[in-house]
Amino acid sequence: MLDKSNAPIGVFDSGVGGLTVAGEIMRQMPRESIVYFGDTARVPYGSKSKDTIIKYARQIINFLKTKEVKAIVIACNTASAYALDTVINENDLPVIGVIHAGAVQAARVTNNKRIGVIGTKGTVSSGIYPKFIKDIDKGIEVTQKACPLLCPLVEEGLMHDNVTDEIISRYVSELKSKYIDTLVLGCTHYPLLKPAIAKIMGQSVNLVDPAYETALELSKLLDRYGIKKDSNIKAEYNFYVSDLAESFQDFASMILPNEVKNTKKINIEEY
């Protein structure tokens, strides 16, 4: 049987948001190599249909397979909500999304059983967070809020801007009125806004970052399949995008624990 333990992990997102997941994998599993794909030509995913998202996910997974990845992380909530079940059934390698781990952690940390979820229109309309959370505890009340402007603001690098703070405040006012004690950051772009969201929500609200929880779940998955890297060969990180490679690389170097030295643009439609 072919030893896949030294093969890289494939990670993909609609753009830069999945870098929050890649960063957590780098921190928690520094030996593991990563092949990252950001679909920067077609971001955002949150306003697109289920069929379109499934098509995109299939193309990206086809590309990642050419890099001989041993597992794939769908580091996008919308793609996890719409495409995860489909691509799991179509592929013979482990594939995980970011929603399950976030839902489990939210149910674990809430005290008053009132949880808020912020995400894209696609993630919110899918209803997948309330479903997962209520599968764990039917007594939990889940309030969702679509925040379609936050993803583009992050993609533009406006994480520390008064305009962004004002928009966050408008979006979460409804959630604050529900007296939630836990808020799921239901888009992998949102951890990049965590300081602003935490300030607006206040110290009494737990913020659940699915990126952190997904890296923990991935570690367990690799153990279960016996494919966790056990050698001291230096980890390699390779980045690919469908557009705007230079700006992506600059952004990634700012937020990742390791410098991004090379980002390649590919034509994802060929896959």
Keywords:
six-stranded parallel sheet; single chain; 271 residues; Rossmann fold; four-stranded parallel sheet; alpha/beta; globular
How does this model look, in words?
This protein is of the alpha/beta class and 271 residues long. The chain has two domains: 2-97 and 212-270, Rossmann fold (3-Layer(aba) Sandwich); 100-210, 3-Layer(aba) Sandwich (Rossmann fold), CATH 3.40.50. 45% of the residues lie in helices and 16% in strands. It has eleven helices and ten strands. It has a six-stranded parallel beta sheet with strand order 4-3-1-2-9-10, sandwiched between helices. The chain has a four-stranded parallel beta sheet with strand order 6-5-7-8, sandwiched between helices. α4 crosses α6 (128-136).
Instruction: Count up the helices.
Output: 11
What's the gyration radius in Å? 18 Å
- The topology string of helices and strands comes to EHEHEHEHEHHEHHEHEHEHE
CATH class wording of the largest domain:
Alpha Beta
Apparent shape: globular
Tell me the helix content: 40-55%
Q: What is the percentage of strand-forming residues?
A: 15-25%
Low-confidence stretches: none
Given helix and strand content, the structural type is alpha/beta
